[in-house]
Amino acid sequence: MITKPKGCHDIYGIEGKKWQYVSNLIDGVCDKYNYSFIRTPIFESTELFHRGVGETSDIVSKETYDFIDRGDRKMTLRPEGTAGVVRSYIENKMYGDATQPVKLYYNGTMYRYERPQSGRDRELTQFGMEVIGSDDPFTDAEIISMAVNIYRLVGLKGIKVNINSLGDLESRSKYREALVNYFKPHVDELCDDCKNRLEKNPLRVLDCKVDNHLQIMKDAPRILDYLNEDSKNRFEAVKKYLGLMDIEYIVNPNVVRGLDYYCHTVFEIEADIKDFGSQNVLGAGGRYNGLAKELGGPDVSGVGFAMGIGRLMLAIEKEGIELPINTKLDAFVMYVSDTEKDYAATLVQELRMSGFRIDTEYTGRGLKGQFKQADRLNSKYLIILNDSDLENNLITVKNNTTKEEVKIEIDYLLYYLDECLISEDDHNHDGCDCGCEDEDDHNCNCGDDCDCGDDCNCGNDCDCGDDCSCNHN
Ligand code: HAM
Questions:
Q1: Helix residue ranges per DSSP H, 75-168
Q2: Which protein residue has the closest C-alpha to ligand 1 atom 12?
Q3: Cβ–Cβ < 8 Å for 107, 26
Q4: C-alpha–C-alpha distance, residues 167 and 226, integer Å
Q5: 3-state secondary structure of 470
Q6: All domains in the chain, ordered by first residue
Q7: What angle (nearest 5°) sits at the alpha carbon of residue 424, between those of residues 322 and 26?
Q8: Considering only CA atoms, which of 179, 164, 140, 166 is closest in space to residue 253?
Q9: Which residues pair with 124 in a beta bridge?
């Protein structure tokens, strides 16, 4: 049997529906923040990620999937999205667009040759957001608020926002010197990776997962004490805007991030959930002012964030969040004879084109088997075709919950089904989590067209008050 590669996943069934729900929700948030979608290649020239001098990031120094293509070009499966987006910004001359900054978001798979464990995959899916062309700390705060809002909307309670500033070049080089002087006498206590990092990029020593228990790590100088005036002011401004946006955060000087391109604001959003495991950073990002220039573009600033969808799904599961996934069919069309089957082919097409969620029989089951199949597929209604009924322009519709059955004129079917489904939604309205009794006293502000029926995603905690945060239309 051929199996999937290590560290990769097949996402399907109810899990697939949950991924789609979460992806749609994030799409919705990006739209509200006015970010537009960008799709860049999954593989790029190796030099985009391996930029040479000073490269100490684990992700690019040893964890990429590199290959030579048939034209002898060095290619790399993207380990992250930012470099590709900035490459595209430069290549497509988006900097020439008057509507700076350019706000972009993406959703796609990334590839990292890491040792797989829960929450750490070789093929991972990220949603990422980037603002390119603004140096304003307001955008740093906006990116963080956007990430937090996504987690809030999904329903996650246990998240912790850790922020830090790496300052500008001047601040970092002073800090770097201080760190080297501090760690040098302790070099033998450090792991081999850190010995190497101390030479090339000492800040990354603080990020080490192997040595982080050591007392020397805890007593190390803090970057925040080395920020120059400008860097300090910027960090203060980011914190001010976060406060104005009502985003809670913790200043954590140990957040230095695993990619080499960051300066000023860096942040990580952690799952604060019992038994989540060690891979608990749900999403992370920061400012990367030098990157566009390093890639041969203009000297523009950027800030962004990426969240792992796999880790988000784990968090949703660990917190027991019930996503409002609609697994119900509107109707299952049943037939036995060939003429009934031909009629079914036309009918399912018409019903689907009219907006109903419809399925039918494809494997030659008898009627009994089709009833069972309709139950498995959670069908609200059964449309039972029968030759003699069809000759008389009639069709049988059965409510699969109450088992009530009616024979109606075929021409009336669409209207009838529509009415039944609407009244079913009204009926469910009584038991709606929003707590409203009927449509008239329904003050839910979930969205203009929310009908609070089966598909309502107000979520269990929706109280339909002013603060209801669902975006169901
Ligand atoms: P990153 O911290 O490398 O940042 O990845 C962002 C998120 O992707 C992580 O917080 C985690 O949720 C998820 N992730 C990373 N590696 C794995 C893995 N092996 N398995 C599962 N999930 C993973 C970046 O990628 C930057 N490009 C973020 C950014 C955007 N900075 C500025 N703009």
A1: 82-91, 137-154
A2: 308
A3: yes
A4: 8
A5: coil
A6: 13-168+228-318 (3.30.930.10), 329-430 (3.40.50.800)
A7: 35
A8: 164
A9: 110
DSSP string computed for 20-71? HHHHHHHHHHHHHTT-EE----SEEEHHHH---TT---HHHHH--EEEE-TT
Model confidence pLDDT, tens digit, residues 425-462: 765 544 444 444 333 333 343 433 444 443 444 444 44
Instruction: Please report which helix (H) or strand (E) contains residue 196, including its range.
Output: helix 192-200
Are 84 and 243 in contact by the 8 Å Cβ rule? The answer is no
Q: For residue 1, how many other CB atoms are within 10 A of its CB? A: 2
Measured in angstroms, how far is the CA atom of residue 90 from the centroid of ligand 1?
Answer: 22
pLDDT in tens, 79-109: 999 999 999 999 999 999 999 999 999 999 9
pLDDT, tens digit, for every residue of 237-284?
A: 999 999 999 999 999 998 988 777 899 999 999 999 988 988 999 999
User: 87 C-alpha to center of ligand 1: Å?
Assistant: 18
Whether the CB-CB separation of 9 and 299 falls below 8 Å is answered with: no
CA distance readout (Å), 90 to 97, 107, 306, 341, 396: 11, 20, 20, 56, 61
Nearest CA to ligand 1 atom 22: 308
Token output for 380:
């609200």
Residue with tokens 């489904």: 421
CA–CA dist 130, 32 (Å, integer): 15
Distance 13 CA to ligand 1 centre (A): 26
Give tens-digit pLDDT for 2-11: 999 999 999 9
Residue 309: strand, helix, or coil: helix
